[in-house]
Amino acid sequence: MTKNTFDLERQLLSDYDSKLTVEGVSGERLAYRLGVLSKIGLTEDNGSRRPGFSKEERDAKNWIIKWMEEAGMQVREDGAGNIIGRLDGKHPDKPVIMSGSHVDTVPNGGHFDGTIGVLSALEVAQSWKETGYAPEKPLEIVAFTDEEGSRFNGGLTGSEAMMGDTDIKAMQAKEDFDGRSFEEVIKDVGLSVEGFKSAERPHSDIESYVEVHIEQGKRLEKEQLPCGIVTGIAGPYWLRLTFKGQAGHAGNTPMTDRQDALVAAGHFIHYISHLPQKINDSAVATVGNIEVKPNGTNVIPGEVIVYVDIRDIFENTRQQLIDAIIQTAEDISESWAITLTCETVHNVPPVPIKKDLQDKLKTAMQEKGIRPFYLPSGAGHDAMIVGQHVPSAMIFVRSKNGISHNPAEWSDLNDCVQAVHILKDYIESCQSL
């Protein structure tokens, strides 16, 4: 299928069960809106390219504004470019129930990551308008700015600004893929550094946050379930380990007289692949970046830098894994007469989801005849940032073959609409005063 004939709406509706269009929730409308956004930044591979702070992200946000207004919401944009639609409810003075996600994408991504979270929340608001439901508490839907971070090799920019977590000086020092400064880039879409500073809002304004997102994994597919309950969001912890040995000639140095940093690093990489499952089922550790010096075919490696990404949804078990990885590196370095240094280069705390929020989602699923299934989120989301400050929950939607950040990313419309119904019931269960 070529770019000119790509039709996401038609694909989504091809096997849609129209019986799911009920209680004001419309799968046909959701498919249409996904289709509209899919055409913004459409790539030659029929993927999506909407970097943060781009014209394409701005165009997608303009559609979100239009649809928020159609749902009867008051719409505003904060200083970080976050789009916020609000329904006051019967008690506008109460803290808000918030839901949303993002509409930016990776350079050649799919059409569901982030987008489905914003559009699912919009379906809830639209269903209320169509059925005449009046919430007790205010509802806010947010399309966060620059979650993916492909522009500045970062991410979660809008949610960090709203929660007051932005390091403005660090952001000002960044350059994008065209060598342009942060201030230059955000000016293109009408934003400013001063505006970013003003985007922070009191955490007490928000009672709780909930986000629908595609799973980006295969657990739900293996369970043959449309959606699941997230138990926690694994905070990434990055270690940089430097193994220092002795560089030497590959031909003239006997095998018995070497301090090969790469051999030691290789043993380390092998051993840590078996550590996470010894500590916790949701723990993972990944080596995806290695620097070998001097990196010559005929030179024994004298120095190897290994980056380890360590994640778990609980702080205590993540720390146990970190300690075990460092101890493994120390033991291997000692046995190979290698010098080791360790440095933390990135640390985002995990966000466990509170049991009472999980229980509300469980009830909503049972009432809809869906078997509750619990799974962790290994990836970071806006809910990870918001959840560090206010109670937050997540609903995952089944991903075909677990593919994400790729034009082949796919979630069936039937699954997406069932997740909307769960989200709707969940938000309504949060309305009691």
TrEMBL record:
Gene3D superfamilies: 3.30.70.360, Zn peptidases (3.40.630.10)
Binding sites annotated in the UniProt record for Zn(2+) 1: H102, D113, H213
Keyword Metal-binding tagged: yes
TM annotation in the entry: none
Cofactor: Zn(2+); Mn(2+)
Keywords from the named record: Hydrolase, Manganese, Metal-binding, Zinc
Subunit architecture: Homodimer.
Any one Gene Ontology molecular-function term assigned to this protein's record: hydrolase activity, acting on carbon-nitrogen (but not peptide) bonds, in linear amidines
All residue ranges annotated as the Peptidase M20 dimerisation domain in the record: 235-334
Cofactor binding note from Swiss-Prot or TrEMBL: Binds 2 Zn(2+) ions per subunit.
PANTHER family cross-referenced by the UniProt entry: ALLANTOATE DEIMINASE-RELATED
Residues given in the record as Zn(2+) 2 binding sites: D113, E148, H405
SUPFAM superfamilies documented for this protein: Bacterial exopeptidase dimerisation domain, Zn-dependent exopeptidases
A Pfam family it matches: M20_dimer
Family of this protein: Belongs to the peptidase M20 family.
Name this polypeptide is given: Allantoate deiminase
